[in-house]
Design brief:
The chain contains 5 helices and 22 strands. By secondary structure, the chain is mainly β. It has an 8-stranded mixed β-sheet. Strands 1, 12, 13, 14 and 17 form a 5-stranded mixed β-sheet that branches.
Length: 348
């Protein structure tokens, strides 16, 4: 029986596809750890070992939903609007020099409800109405870094000699659990310009999950409760933590994969409100390289003041808003964001 060229081509294509999916066509590296598809949901072992956090018992600025935050922002460059507004669907089109600038005056004693975000206060089960953001990054050697990003619409910087410094609109903080072949090995906690890392087994646990403490106002992350002084000598600047309300980010989150080769994010699903919102929002908003809050105000504007004391202090009451997850060294080899100085502690 004669066959047409088209029929032969179709038959050959089918044969190649069959071979490619059969064990006879197995890759020589098939014995290595399987790399998860970037559209797969969050692995169960990630959620089973997700950090659970105590917020400060006297907290005034609670977890916020980034989708609500951007509703109150105007993109500006050099204090001049470059667009009338912004959404999570179009934010990735903005340049890296853009500051998302509050439409409201956040310097007033009574701040708008979206700034304090009382709705984000966790309930008795640990559920916050503000979704956390989980970013999963696969790396060589069977490593999966699971980043847990926490967003707040305002950061209250703290006081030095009873003078307030370092407030800013927008606040991104994070913890990260490094898994090796599915087993948790190290916990990293961001805090101000640095952070701390601990072997996973030494961390305090709640129902088998690592327990952390989030500082009042600054939202820096720590492995133990109490006072944590930082950045300045003589204990001039300190964070306060305690066993306040418990926040479980695994109950409400948006989750994404990040590909270090392409720099692209893709959706991994979610839970709670995060799961409801993520389909329409997509993953593109995580690529925004600009700042998530106001640019540092000029002196006297919005009550701005600055103080310089030699090499000891050079701070203003209001500083610029932060960059987002894309700028937090997601592709790091060491567990710390600052890889040049990274010590993994083996005790608390």
């Amino acid at each position: 029986m004669a066959y047409s060229r088209r029929a032969l081509s179709t038959a050959c294509t089918a044969l190649l596809l069959a071979l490619a999916t059969s064990s006879a066509w197995a890759s020589p590296t098939s014995a290595s750890p399987r790399r998860l598809g970037k559209r797969e949901p969050v692995p169960s072992f990630v959620l089973q070992n997700a950090p659970i956090s105590h917020l400060w018992s006297q907290e005034s600025w609670w977890p916020s939903d980034v989708a609500e935050h951007v509703k109150h922002m105007v993109p500006e460059v050099n204090f001049t609007a470059v667009a009338p507004g912004v959404t999570l669907q179009n934010i990735s089109s903005l340049a890296s020099d853009v500051f998302l600038t509050s439409e409201d005056d956040v310097s007033k004693d009574t701040q708008p409800a979206w700034v304090t975000s009382d709705v984000g206060m966790p309930d008795a089960s640990g559920l916050s109405a503000a979704p956390a953001t989980i970013v999963l990054v696969e790396k060589d050697g069977g490593i999966l870094d699971a980043f847990f990003f926490y967003f707040y619409s305002f950061d209250h910087g703290g006081k030095v000699l009873d003078i307030e410094f370092g407030d800013h609109v927008g606040d991104w903080e994070h913890s990260m659990v490094r898994f090796v072949n599915g087993e948790p090995s190290v916990l990293y906690l961001s805090a101000h310009t640095g952070g701390s890392a601990f072997t996973f087994n030494v961390t305090e646990k709640t129902n088998g999950r690592p327990t952390t403490y989030i500082a009042g106002g600054t939202h820096a992350n720590y492995a133990t409760p109490g006072q944590h002084c930082h950045d300045l000598p003589f204990d001039l600047l300190c964070d306060q933590t305690d066993a306040g309300l418990l926040w479980d980010p695994a109950l409400n989150f948006r989750a994404f994969w990040f590909d270090t080769a392409t720099g692209a994010f893709s959706v991994a699903g979610g839970a709670g409100v995060g799961a409801q919102e993520i389909t329409a929002e997509g993953a593109g908003w995580l690529s925004f390289e600009g700042m998530w809050g106001d640019e540092q105000y000029p002196v006297l504007e919005h009550g701005q003041y600055c103080l310089v004391i030699g090499d000891l202090l050079d701070e203003c009451k209001f500083s610029s808003g932060p960059t987002g997850p894309i700028a937090k060294n997601l592709g790091r080899t060491a567990v710390c964001q600052n890889e040049d100085s990274c010590t993994i502690e083996t005790s608390l």
